Amino acid sequence: MVERYALEPLKSLWSLKKQYERWLEVELAVIRAYEELGIAPKGTFEKAQKNSYINVEEILDVEKTVDHDVIAFIKVATSKMGDESRFFHFGLTSSDIVDTANSLALVRATKIILDELKSLYNILIKKANEFKDLPTIGRTHGVHAEPTSFGLKFLSWGAETERNIKRLEFALDEISIGKLSGAVGNYANIDPKVEELALSYLGLKPTKVATQVIPRDIHALLIEIFALIASGIERIAIEIRHLQKTETLEVQEPFKKGQRGSSAMPHKKNPILCERLTGMSRVIRSYINAALENVPLWHERDISHSSVERYMFPDVTMTLYYMISKTKYLIENLFIFKENVEKNIDITKGLVYSQRVLLKLVEKGLTREEAYKRVQKIALQCWKNKKSFKEEVKKEFNLLESEINEIFNSNYYLRNINYIFDKFKSK
């Protein structure tokens, strides 16, 4: 965990104290199930709940001797119990506790992330509608292409976020499972009814088929979806970074009062937040390979996945939550310089309307090949000599003034924007 990027409530969720508390939740749920099924005497659960004891320092101290974190936890957690301790960890193996508790943590973290993602989606759609009718230059390969709607940028990001919300909802359902089936997952020493009951108390479902562990393809899918979300945020950040370039200056990320952009150059306002989000996206994507390599474990299990997950689960969830939270701030407070957005359409002196000229000539009877060659010849000359494409078109082609004005009109490119927005809403 990098303290700099750790935000509540995810920061506390992954603390060592919370981890032991989740382990205790699982152990107590099993005892409750034993009691309900008549395997443990009445009152066992209440006594175990009352007398259970969690002390992080003591658990860590015991672990120094036993070199096993779950055994150390059990010894301390039951240290103040009486006869009820007989049913603590009864018929279970360490992975029953750790895997089920990890599911609890991932479910809780994912729900928090999901709520934040939905909030970001609403902000993006609001911005999309706000700037729907603002013409901007579209760029392909980084080169001016044709005018489009500035709001479509936000709508595109919103649509991707909507897809990621649906993906994450699916993964949340899939990760909402636990495993309480014993040493190799075959219920040899625990009744399947205990698992079903105990997990129901925790809001989880039994894993359909487990070994000693929950299959890691389930976790890998969640990490992959987290990486997709991070990549979507990076797409937003990269666009803003490009549009904030001095030569472009169509947008600028928030710059707070008292903020400084450079230790050497007082004039600087750098897109540091967007660059931070870009770097964080790389970190999250890097965990995909680790998550996939956790899938093929030896036989019924080994623990090669364990050390990976101690890094991965907290880091990925906390980093992603930070990214979404900061992206919300970024979009809500983004400076948009409308005059520059519209001005930049004409930087090429009208070349971006070349296809409209081409199509008008085809309408007038030229073949497409002939029209393309003639328009390209003029366009390249205008680019080289920095001449007005509109004026050269007037000289070269026999077009009416009204036709010329219709061709060189950026609002033409917004004529089907409402259709796109309506199509998005209808899906």
TrEMBL record:
Annotated Pfam families: ADSL_C, Lyase_1
Pathway listed for it is: Purine metabolism; IMP biosynthesis via de novo pathway; 5-amino-1-(5-phospho-D-ribosyl)imidazole-4-carboxamide from 5-amino-1-(5-phospho-D-ribosyl)imidazole-4-carboxylate: step 2/2; Purine metabolism; AMP biosynthesis via de novo pathway; AMP from IMP: step 2/2
| Matches recorded under CDD domains | Adenylsuccinate_lyase_1
* One annotated GO biological process: 'de novo' AMP biosynthetic process
Q: Does the keyword NADP apply?
A: no
* Keywords for the protein's UniProt record, in alphabetical order: Lyase, Purine biosynthesis
Alphabetical GO CC annotations of the entry are:
cytosol
User: Coiled coil: which residue ranges?
Assistant: none
List the SMART domains. Answer: ADSL_C (SM00998)
Reactions performed catalytically? N(6)-(1,2-dicarboxyethyl)-AMP = fumarate + AMP; (2S)-2-[5-amino-1-(5-phospho-beta-D-ribosyl)imidazole-4-carboxamido]succinate = 5-amino-1-(5-phospho-beta-D-ribosyl)imidazole-4-carboxamide + fumarate
State a single Gene Ontology molecular function: (S)-2-(5-amino-1-(5-phospho-D-ribosyl)imidazole-4-carboxamido) succinate lyase (fumarate-forming) activity
Residue ranges crossing the lipid bilayer per the database entry? none
Q: What is its EC number?
A: 4.3.2.2
The residues covered by the Adenylosuccinate lyase C-terminal domain are 349-425
- Similarity comment: family membership: Belongs to the lyase 1 family. Adenylosuccinate lyase subfamily.
Report what the protein is called. Answer: Adenylosuccinate lyase
